[in-house]
Structure to design on (202 residues):
Protein backbone atom coordinates (compact mmCIF):
# COMPACT_ATOMS: atom_id res chain seq x y z
CA UNK A 1 0.00 0.00 0.00
CA UNK A 2 1.28 3.51 -0.78
CA UNK A 3 0.65 6.57 1.34
CA UNK A 4 1.10 10.13 0.03
CA UNK A 5 1.24 13.25 2.18
CA UNK A 6 1.72 16.77 0.85
CA UNK A 7 3.20 19.61 2.89
CA UNK A 8 2.09 23.01 1.62
CA UNK A 9 4.58 24.71 3.94
CA UNK A 10 7.63 22.91 2.51
CA UNK A 11 6.12 22.28 -0.93
CA UNK A 12 7.16 18.64 -0.62
CA UNK A 13 5.59 15.24 -0.99
CA UNK A 14 6.20 12.43 1.47
CA UNK A 15 5.73 9.15 -0.28
CA UNK A 16 5.71 5.93 1.70
CA UNK A 17 5.24 2.33 0.71
CA UNK A 18 4.07 0.20 3.66
CA UNK A 19 3.41 -3.52 3.95
CA UNK A 20 1.17 -5.17 6.51
CA UNK A 21 0.75 -8.85 7.41
CA UNK A 22 -2.67 -10.51 7.24
CA UNK A 23 -3.06 -9.83 10.98
CA UNK A 24 -2.39 -6.12 10.46
CA UNK A 25 1.21 -6.09 11.69
CA UNK A 26 3.50 -3.56 9.99
CA UNK A 27 6.11 -5.55 8.06
CA UNK A 28 8.07 -2.80 6.29
CA UNK A 29 7.93 0.87 5.46
CA UNK A 30 10.07 2.89 3.10
CA UNK A 31 9.62 6.56 2.42
CA UNK A 32 11.07 9.38 0.42
CA UNK A 33 10.63 13.10 0.27
CA UNK A 34 10.09 14.65 -3.15
CA UNK A 35 10.57 18.39 -3.42
CA UNK A 36 8.46 20.32 -5.87
CA UNK A 37 10.48 22.87 -7.79
CA UNK A 38 8.49 25.68 -9.36
CA UNK A 39 9.81 26.25 -12.87
CA UNK A 40 9.46 29.30 -15.11
CA UNK A 41 10.38 29.16 -18.78
CA UNK A 42 11.30 32.65 -20.05
CA UNK A 43 12.00 33.11 -23.76
CA UNK A 44 12.43 35.64 -26.53
CA UNK A 45 11.48 34.88 -30.12
CA UNK A 46 11.56 37.02 -33.23
CA UNK A 47 12.08 35.27 -36.59
CA UNK A 48 9.79 32.24 -36.84
CA UNK A 49 8.79 31.39 -33.29
CA UNK A 50 11.50 28.68 -33.15
CA UNK A 51 12.52 29.53 -29.60
CA UNK A 52 8.90 29.86 -28.54
CA UNK A 53 8.15 26.41 -29.94
CA UNK A 54 10.85 24.79 -27.81
CA UNK A 55 9.93 26.91 -24.75
CA UNK A 56 6.25 25.88 -24.97
CA UNK A 57 7.08 22.21 -25.27
CA UNK A 58 9.45 22.39 -22.33
CA UNK A 59 6.94 24.23 -20.12
CA UNK A 60 4.37 21.58 -20.94
CA UNK A 61 6.72 18.69 -20.29
CA UNK A 62 7.92 20.00 -16.91
CA UNK A 63 4.64 21.55 -15.82
CA UNK A 64 6.26 24.99 -15.66
CA UNK A 65 4.92 28.47 -16.35
CA UNK A 66 5.77 30.45 -19.46
CA UNK A 67 6.78 34.10 -19.95
CA UNK A 68 7.58 35.75 -23.28
CA UNK A 69 10.01 38.68 -23.28
CA UNK A 70 9.04 41.70 -25.33
CA UNK A 71 11.09 44.79 -26.06
CA UNK A 72 9.38 48.10 -25.24
CA UNK A 73 10.23 49.24 -28.78
CA UNK A 74 9.56 46.49 -31.29
CA UNK A 75 12.11 45.63 -33.97
CA UNK A 76 10.72 46.96 -37.24
CA UNK A 77 11.74 46.94 -40.88
CA UNK A 78 12.82 44.12 -43.14
CA UNK A 79 14.66 41.04 -41.93
CA UNK A 80 17.87 42.54 -43.31
CA UNK A 81 17.24 45.83 -41.42
CA UNK A 82 16.91 43.91 -38.16
CA UNK A 83 20.00 41.80 -38.90
CA UNK A 84 21.99 45.03 -39.37
CA UNK A 85 20.52 46.69 -36.28
CA UNK A 86 21.24 43.53 -34.28
CA UNK A 87 24.89 43.56 -35.38
CA UNK A 88 25.36 47.06 -33.93
CA UNK A 89 23.45 46.19 -30.75
CA UNK A 90 25.26 42.94 -30.01
CA UNK A 91 28.65 44.59 -30.68
CA UNK A 92 27.85 47.26 -28.08
CA UNK A 93 26.17 44.89 -25.59
CA UNK A 94 23.01 47.01 -25.88
CA UNK A 95 20.24 46.15 -23.40
CA UNK A 96 16.85 47.32 -24.74
CA UNK A 97 14.14 48.21 -22.21
CA UNK A 98 11.60 45.39 -21.82
CA UNK A 99 7.87 45.33 -21.27
CA UNK A 100 7.08 44.49 -17.62
CA UNK A 101 7.08 40.76 -16.80
CA UNK A 102 3.81 39.17 -15.74
CA UNK A 103 5.43 36.52 -13.52
CA UNK A 104 7.58 37.20 -10.47
CA UNK A 105 10.99 35.57 -10.74
CA UNK A 106 11.24 35.33 -6.95
CA UNK A 107 8.33 32.82 -6.96
CA UNK A 108 10.39 30.22 -8.87
CA UNK A 109 13.31 27.96 -7.96
CA UNK A 110 14.18 26.95 -11.53
CA UNK A 111 14.36 29.47 -14.37
CA UNK A 112 14.78 28.27 -17.95
CA UNK A 113 15.91 31.01 -20.35
CA UNK A 114 15.58 30.57 -24.12
CA UNK A 115 17.03 32.83 -26.81
CA UNK A 116 17.56 32.80 -30.56
CA UNK A 117 21.19 33.22 -31.59
CA UNK A 118 21.83 36.76 -32.81
CA UNK A 119 25.30 37.31 -34.18
CA UNK A 120 26.78 34.38 -32.22
CA UNK A 121 25.42 35.58 -28.88
CA UNK A 122 22.03 35.88 -27.13
CA UNK A 123 19.43 38.34 -28.43
CA UNK A 124 19.72 41.78 -26.74
CA UNK A 125 16.29 41.33 -25.08
CA UNK A 126 17.60 38.27 -23.25
CA UNK A 127 20.71 40.15 -22.12
CA UNK A 128 18.38 42.86 -20.72
CA UNK A 129 16.37 40.23 -18.85
CA UNK A 130 19.37 38.44 -17.35
CA UNK A 131 21.05 41.70 -16.31
CA UNK A 132 17.87 42.86 -14.54
CA UNK A 133 17.67 39.81 -12.26
CA UNK A 134 19.19 38.41 -9.10
CA UNK A 135 19.43 34.62 -9.51
CA UNK A 136 20.89 33.91 -6.07
CA UNK A 137 19.79 30.45 -4.89
CA UNK A 138 18.18 29.61 -8.22
CA UNK A 139 18.94 26.95 -10.78
CA UNK A 140 19.08 28.47 -14.26
CA UNK A 141 18.89 26.44 -17.47
CA UNK A 142 19.90 28.35 -20.62
CA UNK A 143 18.90 27.14 -24.05
CA UNK A 144 19.23 28.65 -27.48
CA UNK A 145 18.11 28.08 -31.06
CA UNK A 146 20.39 28.70 -34.03
CA UNK A 147 20.71 28.20 -37.77
CA UNK A 148 24.02 26.35 -37.65
CA UNK A 149 26.41 28.99 -36.26
CA UNK A 150 25.97 28.69 -32.48
CA UNK A 151 28.94 30.93 -31.61
CA UNK A 152 29.28 31.57 -27.87
CA UNK A 153 25.67 31.99 -26.81
CA UNK A 154 25.71 29.45 -23.97
CA UNK A 155 29.11 30.67 -22.73
CA UNK A 156 27.88 34.30 -22.67
CA UNK A 157 24.60 33.37 -20.94
CA UNK A 158 26.41 31.25 -18.36
CA UNK A 159 28.80 34.09 -17.51
CA UNK A 160 25.96 36.61 -17.11
CA UNK A 161 23.79 34.23 -15.05
CA UNK A 162 26.61 33.11 -12.75
CA UNK A 163 27.68 36.69 -12.10
CA UNK A 164 24.13 37.26 -10.80
CA UNK A 165 24.26 34.34 -8.39
CA UNK A 166 22.56 31.64 -10.48
CA UNK A 167 23.67 28.01 -10.73
CA UNK A 168 23.69 26.94 -14.36
CA UNK A 169 22.86 23.36 -15.37
CA UNK A 170 21.74 21.38 -18.42
CA UNK A 171 22.35 24.08 -21.09
CA UNK A 172 21.07 23.07 -24.52
CA UNK A 173 21.45 24.11 -28.16
CA UNK A 174 18.67 23.49 -30.67
CA UNK A 175 19.57 23.76 -34.33
CA UNK A 176 17.14 24.76 -37.06
CA UNK A 177 17.85 24.87 -40.79
CA UNK A 178 20.63 27.03 -42.18
CA UNK A 179 18.27 29.28 -44.16
CA UNK A 180 17.08 30.77 -40.86
CA UNK A 181 13.79 28.88 -41.25
CA UNK A 182 11.73 26.73 -38.90
CA UNK A 183 12.81 23.24 -39.91
CA UNK A 184 14.26 21.37 -36.96
CA UNK A 185 17.74 19.87 -37.50
CA UNK A 186 18.52 18.71 -33.94
CA UNK A 187 17.24 15.15 -33.48
CA UNK A 188 13.90 14.84 -31.74
CA UNK A 189 15.29 12.20 -29.34
CA UNK A 190 18.03 14.64 -28.22
CA UNK A 191 15.40 17.24 -27.40
CA UNK A 192 13.28 14.73 -25.49
CA UNK A 193 16.34 13.51 -23.55
CA UNK A 194 17.07 17.10 -22.49
CA UNK A 195 13.45 17.80 -21.58
CA UNK A 196 13.29 14.67 -19.44
CA UNK A 197 16.18 16.01 -17.37
CA UNK A 198 14.11 19.05 -16.37
CA UNK A 199 11.17 17.81 -14.32
CA UNK A 200 9.36 20.29 -12.10
CA UNK A 201 9.25 17.72 -9.32
CA UNK A 202 12.54 16.40 -8.00
C1 LIG B 1 19.45 39.31 -36.21
C2 LIG B 1 19.69 37.84 -36.39
C3 LIG B 1 20.96 37.32 -36.20
C4 LIG B 1 21.18 35.95 -36.33
N1 LIG B 1 22.44 35.45 -36.09
C5 LIG B 1 22.65 34.10 -36.11
C6 LIG B 1 23.93 33.55 -35.79
O1 LIG B 1 24.89 34.25 -35.46
N2 LIG B 1 24.08 32.18 -35.84
C7 LIG B 1 23.04 31.36 -36.21
O2 LIG B 1 23.21 30.13 -36.26
N3 LIG B 1 21.80 31.87 -36.50
C8 LIG B 1 21.58 33.20 -36.44
N4 LIG B 1 20.32 33.71 -36.73
C9 LIG B 1 19.21 32.75 -36.97
C10 LIG B 1 18.38 32.50 -35.70
O3 LIG B 1 19.19 32.33 -34.55
C11 LIG B 1 17.52 31.22 -35.81
O4 LIG B 1 16.79 31.25 -37.02
C12 LIG B 1 16.62 31.08 -34.62
O5 LIG B 1 16.16 29.76 -34.50
C13 LIG B 1 15.41 32.02 -34.69
O6 LIG B 1 14.64 31.87 -33.53
P1 LIG B 1 13.22 32.59 -33.36
O7 LIG B 1 12.35 32.10 -34.48
O8 LIG B 1 12.75 32.14 -32.03
O9 LIG B 1 13.47 34.08 -33.42
C14 LIG B 1 20.09 35.08 -36.64
C15 LIG B 1 18.82 35.62 -36.87
C16 LIG B 1 18.61 36.98 -36.74
C17 LIG B 1 17.24 37.54 -36.95
Amino acid sequence: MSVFAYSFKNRSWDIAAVRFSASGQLLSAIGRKVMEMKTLVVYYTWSNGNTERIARRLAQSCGGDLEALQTAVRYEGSHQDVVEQALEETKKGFTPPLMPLKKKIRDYEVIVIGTPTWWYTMAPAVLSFIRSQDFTGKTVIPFMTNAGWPGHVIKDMTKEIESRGGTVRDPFEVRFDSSGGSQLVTKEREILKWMERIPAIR
Summary: The chain has two domains: 1-35, 37-196. DSSP finds five helices and ten strands in the chain. The mean pLDDT is 90.
